[in-house]
Design brief:
heterodimer; A: Sulfite Oxidase, Chain A, domain 2; Immunoglobulin-like; five-stranded antiparallel β-sheet; B: mainly alpha; Cytochrome Bc1 Complex, Chain D, domain 2; 4 strands; globular
Chain lengths: 360, 170
């Protein structure tokens, strides 16, 4: 027996880590979707993207300061926040820069590297609007600047509409405390919105009439278009899907295969996933694992008998707003090749006659 | 239903938390807005910023702020390139506000020792980066009044979220 469990030593899936600086802990690690099942990402395999390393925070010493355009500036301990009515919900979290290489032509060889900045978790926390009840946010406050206690004090400005809608202050991840890499002991969670805005190690909420125009909401996470203008405050992650098995770097044999993958949308529920196994000549509905939860990943499955001939397999999804996942060419046509963030196009995989699956 | 319950029975019951003192807020509040609110009193210029940059910034961003190894970002160049097939984003070409440059240096730089620069040093390094981009003269003093007056080349380069902007056919 073990007081805190580990997986079988025969199991191997791990995150691939890409350090971006000489200082350790800054960069990204990606979820190995090709080897996972269901809809919940194990906490140990949740993707990471850190801009200034991972701070080690003693929860007993941690404080959340709420100030600015409020009637009562307040300071909360983590224990005090845990005394509010708790909420547990499954939500996906996706980095705004997931698949950034797919748009620019730097296509990655496998689904972990191309789509691994996506994970899905049962988060537990308190509705931010409940905490704000006693703070008394003034009517002229239109933005909330959320700041982390990481070394770089990363900050993002969040519109009040989201704050008062479904924003959570989260302390739980898949039934236990947040992992340090996910913001322990406290993070902001904005369902369906780009990962970077979900500020980790949250220690300050500053209410204001206007956004701060911080570096991460101007210089980064903005979408440069063909006309030289960049879209700003592009928070919502639009619908997308991807086949996770069979996928890049895998090898399959002729015969029966269950094609499976994930679909998600920042605008509610996925209502349809279609799969093509003949290069897009025809499409058929995949089965969606029930229940399909809003703002969480949906697992789809599609039975396939591979005849051993070279082909291309791909999935495409539709969400409850009627949004249709575009092709790569349709996305490039609208945005050009340099917007980078929020890429959500259909992902084709080539299955060679030798059974090797490669990116297209 | 839950909302009603909270309003009728429990407002105040969950009201843990204690009043923040003015000193506490002052110590933690480092937000700087585009109009300059939040900037502390101080001053600097590019002449003073050059040696600080050389010691504390050049190891990553390179001697002339041209970036290094496609990994540490360039701080100069690309002004006027954003609508071309090869856009180059830098502080000079892309960042919309000088206050953002000051704020980012103040809160996050130098990368391995963030918030170790004195206020005047932040003004001076900001001035040096803007000087390298040809946006101010080398002796131009930046302070809490003059910094927000700098008009960055891409000030009007941002538009609101216009998605859904991609039209998919079926």
């Amino acid at each position: 027996m073990r007081a805190y469990g580990e997986r079988s030593p025969f199991e191997g899936p791990v995150r691939v880590i890409r350090e971006l600086t000489a200082s350790p802990g800054t960069g990204s690690s990606r979820t190995p979707h090709a080897e996972l099942f269901g809809t919940i990402t194990p906490s140990a395999l949740h993707f990471e993207r850190h801009h200034s390393g991972v701070p080690a925070i003693d929860p007993a010493a941690h404080r959340l300061l709420i100030h600015g355009l409020v009637e009562n500036p307040l300071v909360f301990t983590v224990d005090e926040l845990k005394r509010f009515p708790s909420i547990s919900r499954s939500y996906f979290l996706e980095c705004g820069g997931n698949s950034i290489g797919e748009q620019s032509g730097n296509t990655q060889p496998d689904v972990q590297r191309s789509h691994g900045l996506l994970s899905c978790t049962e988060w537990t926390g308190v509705a931010l609007k409940e905490v704000l009840r006693n703070v008394g946010v003034k009517a002229e406050a239109k933005w909330m600047i959320a700041e982390g206690a990481d070394a770089g004090r990363m900050a993002r400005s969040i519109p009040m509409e989201k704050v008062l809608d479904d924003a959570l202050l989260v302390y739980g991840q898949n039934g236990e405390a947040l992992r340090p890499e996910q913001g322990y002991p406290l993070r902001l969670l904005l369902p369906g919105w780009e990962g970077n805005a979900n500020v980790k190690w949250l220690h300050r909420l500053h209410f204001a009439a206007e956004p701060a125009m911080s570096a991460k909401e101007t210089a980064y996470y903005t979408d440069l278009g063909k006309d030289g203008k960049a879209q700003i405050f592009t928070f919502v992650m639009e619908a997308r899907s991807v086949i996770t098995r069979p996928s890049g770097l895998q090898k399959i044999a002729p015969g029966f295969h269950e094609i499976t993958g994930l679909a998600w949308t920042g605008k509610g529920k996925i209502v349809r996933v279609e799969v093509s196994t003949n290069g897009g000549a025809s499409w058929a509905d995949a089965e969606l694992q029930q229940p399909v939860l809003p703002l969480a990943v949906a697992r789809f499955r599609f039975p396939w008998n591979w005849d051993g001939k070279e082909t291309v397999i791909q999935s495409r999804c539709t969400d409850e707003t009627g949004f249709l996942q575009p092709t790569h060419d349709e996305l490039i046509e609208a945005r050009g090749s340099h917007s980078g963030y929020h890429y959500n196009a259909i992902k084709p995989w080539r299955v060679g006659a030798d059974g090797n699956v490669t990116h297209v | 239903m839950f909302k009603l319950f909270a309003v009728l029975c429990c407002a105040g019951v969950w009201g843990q938390g204690r009043p923040a003192t003015a000193g506490e807020v002052r110590k933690l509040d480092i937000t700087v807005f585009p109009d300059g609110r939040g900037l502390p009193a101080g001053k600097g210029n590019a002449v003073l910023g050059r040696p600080i940059y050389k010691v504390k910034c050049a190891v990553c961003h390179n001697e002339a702020a041209e970036g290094r190894d496609q990994q540490w970002p360039a701080l100069v160049g690309g002004i006027g390139s954003l609508a071309t097939p090869k856009p180059k984003k830098s502080v000079g070409s892309y960042w919309p506000y000088a206050t953002t440059v000051w704020d980012y240096i103040n809160r996050s730089m130098p990368f391995d020792h963030p918030r170790s620069l004195a206020t005047d040093e932040v003004y001076s390094v900001t001035a040096f980066v803007l000087f390298l981009n040809g946006l101010i003269a080398e002796g131009h003093e930046l302070n809490e009044k003059t910094l927000p007056q700098i008009l960055m080349p891409n000030r009007n380069g941002f538009v609101p979220d216009r998605r859904p902007d991609v039209k998919a056919k079926r």
